């Protein structure tokens, strides 16, 4: 029996389904035991070029020596106190405020879900309102406030689709769902719920469904509608933050939200997340004397996460990280498009910067509903075959791929060669 299978069977004895977060259980089941740079290695000794990047944190690559050295140095001297603040927290917060336009102040927590939860609760406190707008297909974490109408079954689009059993009906029903890239829909929702909407939360690029780009004017339109309605605009930059620019996608788009949530690429794989925003709002948190919005967490601001984030941001400041990953992303997309053209494959290669995905459909999707036209079984077979050939992409429908600073031109060449041979095989 393969070592992968042995470990999986053992894991299922102690853990429901054998995995510690949803959608980690895929077929064939991988057990990775080593990671270095752009490569990951399974328990049977197979090597893969990794584009899954653990859902996005690895912008520099796995086990990055500069980040690791900074973390080791930090934990050799300090850790966590549960009182006061640390020099690492101050430096990390300073760097975020320096780069992210909406960040006048920052608070650290440990996951993107915590960050979006706090942003939504703060918005309710600031506005005295209850309702929230999100978009079909976007994901903002596992809590009741936002976990509805994510990767919905097609027949559930436009309907009430809670993401989990056990959610409070009130939370589900106070979250209204709009169509991405459809400003008329958002405007109508504001009109029908006048004076009731506390916040609008959006992934500025909905990467949880691959890569659906905001159409020109859409994010600006959201900004204007939120301002006109006294609603807080929350950019959930847990994926886009630091990956698409050191200042986040808000800097690329030229649209500044009231609150921003960040995670993943901010610390190259180490656990930390953040909520940032305008000072008058952030000062409502009870970390500030007199603040009335609860904010707490035993591990908030731990030396591991803050040191890793400082190191990651410093490297982005001092080396051409974005220039390189954008160039490699462009090469990848152009290479795949050229292969499709030559082989007569009907597909749309979507992407931005270091992120891309191949939808097997013949037009650019503008929102989640458009993705019904993607050939899901082809999408899955394609990714499984790539995995068999040493190119790791999550074998699940509508998932994106990430390039990191440690990927090389040679990795892209090898990937394109394998993509071509897999597509030839699938076509025949
Ligand atoms: C856009 C977005 N927001 C929030 C989250 C939740 O982050 P976490 O898994 O760290 O709780 C995710 C996770 O994938 C995400 O993609």
UniProtKB/TrEMBL annotation:
GO molecular function: transaminase activity
Keyword Transcription appears in the UniProt entry: no
UniProt keyword list: Aminotransferase, Pyridoxal phosphate, Transferase
Source domain of life: Bacteria
InterPro entries assigned: Aminotrans_3, Aminotrans_3_PPA_site, PyrdxlP-dep_Trfase, PyrdxlP-dep_Trfase_major, PyrdxlP-dep_Trfase_small
Pfam family, one: Aminotran_3
Cofactor field: pyridoxal 5'-phosphate
Native species: Paenibacillus spongiae
Official protein name in the record: Aspartate aminotransferase family protein
Family: Belongs to the class-III pyridoxal-phosphate-dependent aminotransferase family.
